[in-house]
Amino acid sequence: MILILNCGSQSIKWKLFDKNLKLKKKGQPKNFRDLKTDLKNIDQNIDLIGHRFVHGGEKFRKPVEINKSTLRALKKLRSLALLHNPFNILGIKIASQVFPKVKQIVVFDTGFYKDLSDKVSIYPVPGNFKRFGFHGISHEYVGNKHPKKKIISVHLGGGASITAIKNGKPIDTSMGYTPMEGLMMMTRSGDIDPCIVIKLGRKAEHILNKESGIKAICGEVDMRDVLKRKDKKAKLALDMYVYRIQKYIGAYYAILGGCDLLIFTGAIGYGSARIRKMITKDLKIFDKTKILAIKPNEELAIAQKIKK
Question: Would you call 172 a catalytic residue per the annotation?
Fold first, then answer.
């Protein structure tokens, strides 16, 4: 049996697959204490454990087996993705406690983007700052379903990103050195004037990660609550959210030289037909583009990678 843990910024999920990658069990505990209880109650022989890890820096782009050395190195990368990496590490620790003798492999969200061209990945500032890209496991999963197409993949959840994919390979992506760049998200600002960071001072990282985006405009952190409201602040938040997505879609349409498939995934992208309609209704360039909603399955994508 293959156990996959996906410990994200707003949710914890686990799935259990057999050797043929058929789903046998799954869970979505509310916290890490419940996760540990869930794992202890799995009445199966676990042969392999896989983890999603958001940001592995320059050193980690390909799947890697967990040992004392790699875990020590991963702990040093906590600050690269403060909403994710610490939780990914905690998931590894809990799995190690419950299944101390089982091989564990980490798959990195940044891995899909390791071959981005220099003109896309290098930032025009002093120092070696590069675009890593995120949600790569999710974007790669939908891209692999249509490997010979020009695809714009839109992952919308607590975090949000867009990737341009051509023949199964990423050409560009909206997230950058950290998961804070790009689209407006539930609590993250996305693209802003860098001088705002200076004005925000020492609390800038916390503010831009946890107090910005939709939350800053209308006070909500769950898109379902935003969609229920009819007031001006909620409408403004949705208008801003949709507009920035449309702007990136238009840019990636130009970069790809057209688009065969516009794919929505993630809890919001797949789960909200209303959001999809708001985004696509004014995009006349997509009259001949097929629009799909694909249910996210990062856990299966991880299992496919580590089973090889």
Answer: no
